[in-house]
Amino acid sequence: MDTFVQSIVSGLLTGSLYAMIGVGLTVIFGVMRIINMAHGDMVMLGMYGAFLAPTFLRIDPFLSIVIWIPIAFLIGVFIYRFLLKNIVPAGELNTLLYTAGLSLFIANLVLLIGTGDYRTIKLKYAVMPLRPFGIAVPIPLAIAFGMAILITVALYWFLVRTDTGRAIRATSQEPEAAALMGVNVDRMAIITFALGTALACGAGVLLAPSLYLYPTVGEILVAKCFVIVVLGGLGSVPGAIAGGLLLGVVESLGAVYVSVPYKDGIGFVIFLLVLLFRPSGLFGVGKS
Amino acid sequence: MKRFVVALAILLLFAAPWIVSAPFFVHLMIMVLMWTVLGASWNILGGFTGQVSFGHATFLGAGAYTTMILFLKLGIAPWYGIPIGGLVAAFIALPIGFICFRLRGPYFALSTLAVAEIIRLVALNWESFTNGPVGLLITTLPDVTFWGRSIDWENKIPFYYIISVIVLAAILATHFMSRTRLGAYLLAIREDIDSAEAIGINTVQARVAALSLSAFFAGVAGGFYAMYLRYIDPDAVFSIALSVEMVFIAVVGGLTTVAGPLIGAIVLVTFGETFRQIFLVGHLIFYGLMMMIVIRYLPEGIWGRLRLWFITQH
To answer: Which of B191, B292, B298 to mutate to test the interface with A (most CBs of A within 10 A)?
Structure first.
């Protein structure tokens, strides 16, 4: 029983970060129909950002998120405005291939500048896990969990309560109708892409102290990310949050009750089953 | 005119090792030709049928492991193992096709990615069969005599001729397939799958047939990869990056053209391998860059654009 509760808890902790990455991918898909293969590389850039923070900025990796999120937002604006904007009208498959190219470019650029070595971040305060109610909670993951919830709630508030957020949701539901109602669809696309990129990068910063980082880590992360958004229904923000938490828990339970080496595979099996039998996602809200 | 160019190209293909015989160039040509086969294989599905797969490494890996395991466990020489590897890959493609072809467009692409990752994990963890992450190694290839002379496997030139024959087979197969009834079905599916279905084409069957043919050549190339490099492990032959490279070669060269994969492989592999010689890592940066340029400015690919230009000129 203890192991069961323990694995649910660690699953939810990791899942909150998966959710954050997934929300980024899903809003981008919802508004622009871009399946962004380079999303995982944005996470990777965030991880390297956190890794470099103590040496170059002399601040804590977690604190560096306040610097990296705005920078990632600008990178997102740049990528969309100068690279992706002209590709989007050419259709979903072309953007898929284009972002796959972008992904390879970014990952290999990092590989060239740095090295392919596996790196870890050492935190002074990450000595012993906290033990509330006898459940081990690693400190870096607990901090990441808290910050991920804060950021996701803030984003949710932004999408639901603000005018820009409403305009983004309107564009996602029906771009032409939104344009007729006076929404600047182009501008919403830029803001959404930048937001998605910032979320991915932010999640990377939070994830960095708990994972190994290497330049091609984005490959596996983006694959997981697709699992998450398809689970929740492509284009749905609550769906991505639920999908992220679900994948976290499934992986963690799988590692305990099925086998550690196949833990990453369980997500993909569920992914295939959902694609085949419930293509609009577990909650039936996605767009296929 | 066209026949003359083709005959000249084939002559050049077989004479090349005499013209440039430096080991690096022979190695480069072998890699270019191997990637041509992989690009041509992907082109059958991605170009002629319009189904983008991000999981073709599965078939390459299946061919490579079949060839390796047949040789190491049963003593069957790789030159028999290579075609058997192709058949195994074609066979594996059947269930994958019947599952994944229920999906369309980007969803199909994502499902093939998932299948490939599952198979990579199986290869990584089924240690009694695949030897897991340690991989499989051939130390010496069996002796063989060809026209009374024993073949020297330490030399790269025999490998060059083997892959040349495979390339010709792949290109001819693509050429003839595009002229058969199946080829017409596939083009119809690519242009509009609903209309194809409406006029009575069994689209699932036709797409599975295309996937299986495509998988056969990917498997053959995989078998050759195992024999040429003499070492494979799951991350070398089942990785996502490998699937993506195949896509890039076919797209950069020109989809739905017979010669496109060759042009794509010449451009990308030559730069990639040269880059690797100098910087050791990160040779895929060029692949990414070329892909972005091609999708943006030459959506029909390098060879596709050249061919259009020829047609409008004459």
So the answer is: B292
DSSP 8-state secondary structure symbol assigned to residue A116: S
Q: What is the ipTM of this complex?
A: 0.86
Provide the residue ranges of all domains of chain B, joining segments of one domain with +. 35-239
Q: What is the pLDDT of residues A25-63, one digit of tens each?
A: 998 888 888 888 899 999 999 999 888 888 887 888 888
**Whole-prediction pTM:** 0.89
Cα A21 to the chain's mean position, in Å? Answer: 1
Asked whether residue A199 is assigned to any structural domain, the reply reads yes
User: What is the extent of the structural domain holding A80?
Assistant: 21-216
Buried b / exposed e across A53-81, counting CB within 10 Å, b at 16+?
Answer: bbeeeeebbbebbeebbeebbebbbebbe
Flag if B284 and A92 touch (Cβ within 8 Å). Answer: no
Cβ neighbours of A272 in B, within 8 Å: 99, 111, 114-115, 118
Total count of domains within chain A? 1
The sign of the CA dihedral A85, A90, A92, A97 is: negative
What is the C-alpha separation between A64 and A46, in angstroms, rounded?
10
Is residue A57 domain-resident? yes
Per the domain annotation, does A222 fall within a domain?
no
Residue A247 resides in a domain? no
Mutate to test the interface with A, among B128, B204, B284, B294 (most CBs of A within 10 A): B284
Residue B43 in contact with residue B250, Cβ under 8 Å?
yes
C-beta separation of B166 from B172 below 8 A = no
pLDDT digits (tens, 9 = 90+) for B214-260: 999 999 999 999 999 888 988 888 988 899 899 999 999 988 888 88
Strands (E), A17-165: none
